[in-house]
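Both lines are retained for reference:
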Amino acid sequence: MRSQSFLILGVGFLGLASLASAGVITGAAGPPVSSCANNVGDSGFTCNFFETSGGAPSDHSDVVSFPTVPTVQSVNAGYVVLLESPGGSHTDPTQWSDVLQFIDNGGKVSTSAQLLSIGCACFPTAAVINDPATQFLVENQAGVGNDFIDSTQFVAGFNTFNIFSASPIPSSSGPGPSPAPEPASLALMSLALIFLFAFVRIRPRIA
């Protein structure tokens, strides 16, 4: 009987953890926020850009300034375009996933950037980014389909820019890892286990 109680308690903790990760329990951490910070013990800085604005999911990120201490950090102004698949068109925005804009402060110098996602009214056209300095990258092609986990990296000198955007999920029948279960699915499974073991626990008392 005692072993059943410990088993129920363990499953209960698993269920609570799954619910928290799915955001079902109030007070769970909100979506990540874009930010930049100096590299520790090295030159340059690293930025993480998420499809969130004001702490909520969005089709564009907040405008993020580069570090200013010990000196103001800057890069060349321009655009980095993520292509949804290899061989994607450089002139057809419907084949783009996201665009990282290095905002021009004047003189082709940028001290801040913003992530723009397809579907946003702010999404640039091919004519806007028609510049030799524009960089095109193929989006990470082996992810879990989560905007806050999958990322594609762009490196400029000593600076690194991690662009977070949902990547294609590899087929379970093909190469690559199998799709990870969604947090909501894990939560439902855990709840089902909790009710099952609770029923088994109290059934002798009812008979």
In short: The mean pLDDT is 80. The CA atoms of residues 20 and 26 lie 8 Å apart. The longest strand covers residues 96-102.
